[in-house]
3-hydroxy-3-methylglutaryl coenzyme A reductase (Aestuariibaculum sediminum), 442 residues
Amino acid sequence: MSKSISGFSKLSKSKKIDWMVETYFSNAEQAKTVLKQYWNTNEKLQKLHDEFIENTITNYYLPLGVAPNFLINNTLYTIPMAIEESSVVAAASKAAKFWLDRGGFKTEVISTTKIGQVHFMYHGNPEALTSFFNEVKPKLISDAHPITKNMEKRGGGILNIELNDKTKDIPGYYQLHASFETLDAMGANFINSCLEQFAKTFKSEALLFDGFSEEEKNIQIVMSILSNYVPECLVRAEVSCKVEDLTESENISGNEFAQKFVQAVNIAEIEPYRAVTHNKGIMNGIDAVVLATGNDFRAIEACAHAYASRHGKYSSLSHAKVENGIFTFWIEIPLALGTVGGLTGLHPLVKLSLELLHHPSAKELMQIIAVAGLAQNFAALRSLTTTGIQQGHMKMHLMNILNQFEATDAEKQILTTQFKDQTVSHSAVVSAIENLRSQSSL
Ligand code: MEV
């Protein structure tokens, strides 16, 4: 049984590592070597990473890939993607190229409103609370002015504050439900600071309100926090073309492909087991760009799946139809993103990714990321409804298997050529490696 430790966060990095490897690892030196291999020799850069979080012991790398040829509203983009899954960047690139020849992606930001709430308890007369709220609302906004003034200068700020009665769900539970425009910032700190100020003003002003009894004056603030559910921070991305232009192979007509594709999307619309995997494919594209651009993929994930359930049943985030001979495939997804603040000005690779994307505004980034999701979904459905997913997936996975067996460059070259027109399976690759090695040892 390992022992607990107190004061761990105050130890130096090397002391933390010493404690950890000695407590948990059979070969402490080997564990230390692995950790060290991932440190950056550039001390300044390593310090930057050390200070992103508490108790950093090393860095955890993900590959940063790029998918070129994305034509979005007539502008060409090369999209950066940070992801470990072998086939994702290849699939995105393939979908980008496919739609490049068919007019590209069309996108539109529908709305950009963010949400935050002060949750509080009040057990008195609801009408007195409404009168108090109406009276105090201008002061809630003016007391937050020191926080909002810079955002207001740029055209953003607090949009509205409403009082919500939630007493049917929990006796005495109410909310201040506030909406915000945070422009190019994701806005989490801005929103949370405003909310905490609202809570302070609300509580202190209640003590002075004549319309409350002594008991009613005692409003209990439970918490003040932004909501990562932002159904009104919404973007739409779409592709469309004539059905006959959909095909690239002799094996399937454009019409047959369109029918199967729409069926696949319809299934994801009504069947949650399929919808989750369908949306996971979308998030393969979305998360990779969210990560590369220094945004919060947990927030994006939580929101996307809540949005996918907004009608009371988990469903597809994308939709497809054929009408008058035109195939249309689209996604509408809430994406709360920032291109200033947070990691965007700190992480050198995030800065590089944003430059690659022509320094997008948050609205432009919403459009690019929605496209990455739609492209990924298109690529997955295209494979699933034609060749099946494993052919492409395993081709990309081949390198992982070869690396597991520590194949040399020469072995990799021979085996990737061999598997160009052979089905890749784990066992087939293993026997091919064994075969090759037994031949060369003869
Ligand atoms: C794999 O990461 C993603 C897919 O399963 C998505 C899908 O099934 O649509 C291929």
